[in-house]
Amino acid sequence: MNERVGDAESAGTIDLTARDVFAEWARATIRYADLDPNNHVNNGAINQFFEDGRVQFRTARMAPLGEATLAGFALVRYSATYRAALHYPGEVEIGTVVTRLGGSSYDLGQGVFQGDKCIATAEVTTVHIVDGRSARLPDTVRAILEAARSAGQG
Amino acid sequence: MNERVGDAESAGTIDLTARDVFAEWARATIRYADLDPNNHVNNGAINQFFEDGRVQFRTARMAPLGEATLAGFALVRYSATYRAALHYPGEVEIGTVVTRLGGSSYDLGQGVFQGDKCIATAEVTTVHIVDGRSARLPDTVRAILEAARSAGQG
Amino acid sequence: MNERVGDAESAGTIDLTARDVFAEWARATIRYADLDPNNHVNNGAINQFFEDGRVQFRTARMAPLGEATLAGFALVRYSATYRAALHYPGEVEIGTVVTRLGGSSYDLGQGVFQGDKCIATAEVTTVHIVDGRSARLPDTVRAILEAARSAGQG
Amino acid sequence: MNERVGDAESAGTIDLTARDVFAEWARATIRYADLDPNNHVNNGAINQFFEDGRVQFRTARMAPLGEATLAGFALVRYSATYRAALHYPGEVEIGTVVTRLGGSSYDLGQGVFQGDKCIATAEVTTVHIVDGRSARLPDTVRAILEAARSAGQG
After folding, report:
1. Three-class SS of residue D2?
2. How many CB contacts within 8 angstroms connect chain C with chain D?
3. D17, CA 20 to 30 Å: which among A151, B74, D118, D127?
C-alpha cells in the first residue's frame, strides 16, 4: 500500500479545498471538550469530523449493500492536512468524494469547512478484505463508488 | 430507582425532564466516536453535551462579566441521571436553568432532549472561589443568575 | 460547598477520599487531548477514568456471571465531586467499592487519586432491569457485591 | 507542502513497524470510551496515542528551547496507517523518531505497539512558522532534531 500516497497522486487534479468537488456532505457541531490548551480545536476533533463524514457517506450511499458486505472493508490509511485553526463555538460541514477506484481498494477525499473556508483536507484508503486478504471490489460496490466520484473527474 | 437519588430533592419542584422549565438552550450533533460497544451513545458524550450547555449558558448570559470575574468560579459537583438510550446519527438539544442560588454557590439544572424525549438530566453545583476559599456571589452575578431561574419557580 | 451535596449522606460513613476504603483498583494515563483551555484535565476525562474503574471492577469481579446476566444492568445515576485540578502528563489510580446494596439496585463509590491526593470522588447507581422494569438483584450478583463492600462497613 | 509525502520518500529506508528505529518512547492506557461498536479501539484513540508520543518527544527533547521558540511550530500533515485491531483493556507504547530534516520543516515517524506487535504507524510534518510564513529551522532546533534521528539513518 505504499506505491501511491500523497495529495497529488491519489487525488489527481481534484482540489479538496474547494467545496464544489464533493459528492456527499455531513454536518457537526464543535464541542468545548475539543479545545486544547491553545484554545484551538484539537486535531483529534477534526479527525472525528472526517470520520463522521465517512460514516454519513456510507449510510447515504452504501447502506443498501447490507452489513455482511460492508463488514469486509477496512480503513488502512488516513492522511490529513490541517490548513486553518478552528474555534469554539461553531459548526462545520464535511464533504466527501471518491478520488480513486482501484482493483481491491478505493480512496476518499474529504474536506472540513466553515462556510467557504477550508479547515482541513483528508485522504483515506479503504481496502476490501476477504478471509484476511485483499480482494477485488464487488461490482455493486464499484458502481456505487463510481457514482460518487467528483463531477470534475475524467 | 427513585427512592434515594431523586431529582426532586435537589432541584426542588422543578421537573428537569420537561422542556419548558429551561432558560437557555444549546444544540449538539452526535458523533460516531460517541458510540460504545452496545451501539449506544456513551454516557461520556452525554456529559459533554451538558458541558456544552453550560458553556453556552455562560457565553449567552455571563460574558459581560469578563474573564476576571468568571475565573473565580469552580464546578465542584456534577450529577447526571441517564433516562433513555441515545443513538447515532442525530442531534440533541440541551436546556439549562438556575435551580438554586445560595450564598457562595449556585446550582444549574439541565436536560438533554431529542424532540420532547428527555435523554438525561443533570444538576451541577458551582462555587465562587476567592483566594482558595468560597466567597459570597457578587451582586452582578447574582442578578444574572436570578434572571435565569425557571419561570415556574416561586 | 458541603452543606447540601455531602458525600456523607449517600455513601453513609464511607470517606471516598481515603484510599483504604476501596475494594478494587484500576490505573489510567492522562492524555494531552484531555487538557482544556485552562491547561487542566477536563472533567470529561475524569468521568472516563471513573468509567474505566467500573469496567475493571466488573471484569475482575463479575465476569463469571456471563454477558447474559450483565446485560440486565443499567447505570442510571452518576454523581461526581471534583476536588483538585489534575495536570498532564501523569497517571491516576481509580478505586471502586460497593457502598449500598438495595433490593433491585446498588451503589458504587469511587475515587480518582494521584498518589494519596484525591482528585475526585463519584457515586454511581446501577439498577437491575428485566423486561424494561427494575427487578430484584440475583443472589449470585448480591454475593459478589457483598464481597466488594468496604472493610470499614458495618 | 505537497512535494514530499508518502511513506517511501519521507521515511526513506526506515521501517516504522520495527521497535528498534525509535528515539523516544511514551506509554498510554486504553480506555473503555475508546471502543467503537465493533468492540475495537477506534482510530481516533490511536490518533491520540500518536499525539501523546509527540508531546512526550517535545517535552523530553525540546523543552529547553522554551515556549517562545516552540510556539512557532505547526503540525500541518498527519498520515496514519492502521495495521492491526486493538482491544480493551490494555496499554500501548508509542515510539517517535525524526525521519526527515528539511529547511523549514521536519518529519516525525511514529509507531504504536503492544509488545512487539505494531498496531499502527504515522508520519507527521511540522513546519516552522514566523509571521505567518514558513521560516528556516533555528540551529538549536536543528541540532536537537538531528540527535533524534534513527540510529539506522545515514
Report:
1. coil
2. 39
3. D127
Quote the pLDDT of residue C11. Answer: 60
**Model confidence at C132: pLDDT above 80:** yes
Residue A30 is assigned to a structural domain of this protein: yes
Find where cell 450529577 sits.
B79
- Give the residue from D104, D136, D108 showing the smallest Cα distance to D1: D104
In a domain, D2, yes or no: no
Q: pLDDT for D71-102, tens place per residue?
A: 889 999 999 999 999 999 999 999 999 999 99
Instruction: Say if A52 is an interface residue toward chain B (CB within 8 Å).
Output: yes
Write out chain C residues lying below 8 Å of B105, CB-based: 1
Q: Is D89 on the interface with C (CB under 8 A)?
A: yes
Domain assignment present for residue D1? The answer is: no
DSSP letter (8 states) at residue D137: P
C-alpha cell at A123: 485522504
What is this model's ipTM? Answer: 0.88
Nearest CA in chain C to B48: C44
- Other Cβ atoms closer than 10 A to C84: 12
CB of B42 within 8 Å of a chain D CB? The answer is: yes
Taking 3-state DSSP, the helix, strand and coil percentages for chain B, each rounded to the nearest 5, stand at 30, 35, 35
Report the residue of chain A nearest C40, measured CA to CA. A37
CATH number of the domain where residue B55 is located: 3.10.129.10
pTM comes to 0.90
Q: What whole-number distance in Å separates Cα of residue B73 and Cα of residue B142?
A: 13
| CA pair distance D61, B54, nearest whole angstrom | 39
Neighbours of D113 (CB within 10 A): 21
A-C CB pairs within 8 A amount to 19
pLDDT score of D148: 96
Q: Per the structure, how many domains does chain D have?
A: 1
* D75 located within any domain: yes
> Is residue B2 scored above 50 in pLDDT?
no
For C149, the grid coordinates are 463492600
Full domain range(s) for residue A12: 7-147
Distance from CA of A1 to the nearest CA of C (A): 30
